[in-house]
Amino acid sequence: MNCYEPDFQREIIYVNKVYNECSIIDCPTYRIPIPPTFPLAVNVVDCAITDIMAEAFIVGNDELDLVVNFVINVEYDSNGMSHFIQQTAQYRRRGVRLEGAIPGMNAIVLPLVRCLNCRVVDGGAVIECDVGIYLILKAIALVQLEVMGRFAPEPPECEQVSPLGCAEWFELAESGAFWPPFPPQPVRNSR
User: Fold this and answer.
1) How far is CA 157 from CA 154, 160, 161, in A?
2) How far from 9 is each of 154, 164, 167, 182, CA to CA, in Å?
């Protein structure tokens, strides 16, 4: 007796499986010195984070190291004149525990980094910024799965377009002849 629906087939797919994940929440303070050729700061107008690059490495069983590099962009006021300064910054953590992570797996980081608050210190020679760090760390590996599946139904047409030519092409498309899309799948006998 065949217990499968007739249009379902056994398929082998390769996917990245998440073995475990965790989050890191932190709020470090970064000191940004005003360059000697710039006037001293009176107050901070705006702050933004750009150029975020995050990497994690599995360094041992259940253990990761991570590095997040970013640029802090600050606009400050010096008695009515706006000035802009940038500083490259880094957030680093070693020995982060993530159960199930083993060497040979990949680690990914999903970063959210925001400038939260800045203030002028040291008589206007330095700006301190609190930076909100929220990171999702994932230990992943490419695995082979056997699934019972079929192709998803053909999606509906987008906005209607009047055929300008090639009537045969439009007729084939409307008949469903192009679904499922490339590549054609081999027919397999179910066991």
Assistant:
1) 9, 7, 10
2) 18, 39, 34, 17
Beta bridge partners of 114: 132
Closest by alpha carbon to 65, among 25, 35, 33, 109? 109
The amino acid present at 119, given as its one-letter code, is R
Paired tokens of 93? 């953590």
pTM score of the predicted model: 0.71
CA of 104: how far to CAs of 61, 112, 165, in Å? Answer: 10, 26, 54
pLDDT one digit per residue (tens) for the chain, 191 residues:
455 556 677 788 899 999 999 988 999 999 999 999 999 999 999 999 999 999 999 999 999 999 999 999 999 999 889 999 999 999 999 999 999 999 999 999 999 899 988 999 999 999 999 999 999 999 999 999 888 877 777 777 666 555 555 666 667 667 766 665 555 555 555 44
Cβ contacts of 71 within 8 Å, gap of 6 or more: 49, 50, 51, 86, 87, 88, 89
Q: Tokens standing for 134?
A: 């929220």
